[in-house]
Every structure is written in C-alpha cells, then in structure tokens.
Amino acid sequence: MRILVVEQRQNFNDDLVNFLRASGHQVENAYDGLIGLNLAVTGCFDALVVGTGVPRMDGYQLCRSLLKYSKSKISIVMIGAHDSLAERIAGFELGIDDFVTMPCAFSEILARLRAVFFRKTR
Q1: Average confidence (pLDDT) over 6-16
Q2: Which domains does the chain have, with CATH numbers?
Q3: In the list 36, 42, 61, 80, which could disulfide-bond 6, CB 3.0-4.6 Å?
Q4: Inter-axis angle of helices 10-22 and 106-121, nearest 10
C-alpha cells in the first residue's frame, strides 16, 4: 500500500512512518496540512493517515479539500488527540473512512488502514 502520513507531532509521525515501512508499505509524510494536501493531490496514494490538528490547514480542511477536488479513491484514517464524539462525527460527515483516538498502537492504525483499503478495493 502507498500511504501518506500527515501529522504535526514529529516523533509520532516519524515513528509511524518507520513502522509502516517496516511492515512493507511505501510511505511519505508531511508535518502540516498544506504540504500534505499538495502531496495527496500530486501523488498516487492508496491511503492517508491525517491528524486533526495539523498546522496551516487542519485535518478536516485537508480532507474536505481532497475529497471535493480530487478524483482519488484514497482511504482516509483520521487521528484525534481527544476522544470526542463531535470530532469523530465531523470526520465521518466529511467522508473519512475511520477515526482513531490517541493514544493508539501503530498496529491498530495499520489494521484499520488494511480494513478500509480492503473494503474499497474488493
């Protein structure tokens, strides 16, 4: 799977990228929403992992723009720092595929990525 990770917390971002690469996936990353959106639009990714609070364009704005203007069938897993029902609902109303609340295991993120990718490609 080709995965784009857009998350502002550098250590978390870097560790997740390393985990996904070690699991056999091709991964690129960004630390802010504008760069992430540019990569998502110009790249050919199967899945996007995006934090809700990325700077310059938050995760919700990034997903809204990507889903509105891109013909891509990218699977989206959003990561939120708070277990907030309102945050999860806002993401699902935009069209994301899944939502993970921090703290979470990288293996859970990967399992969710695989599940949403499988559903979109069957």
Answers
A1: 97
A2: 2-121 (3.40.50.2300)
A3: 36
A4: 60
48 exposed, middle or buried (CB, 10 Å; 0-12, 13-18, 19+)? buried
3-state secondary structure 53-65: CCCCCCHHHHHHH
Residues 37-66 have pLDDT tens digits of: 999 999 999 999 999 999 999 999 999 999
Which helix (DSSP H) or strand (DSSP E) does residue 92 occupy? helix 85-94
Summarised one tens digit per residue, pLDDT across range 13-32 is 999 999 999 999 999 999 99
Q: How many CB atoms lie within 10 A of CB 72?
A: 15
- What six digits make up the tokens of 101? 């609340």
What's the CA gap between 90 and 20, in Å, rounded?
Answer: 26
pTM for this prediction: 0.95
- Classify strands 47-51 and 75-80 as parallel, antiparallel or unpaired: parallel
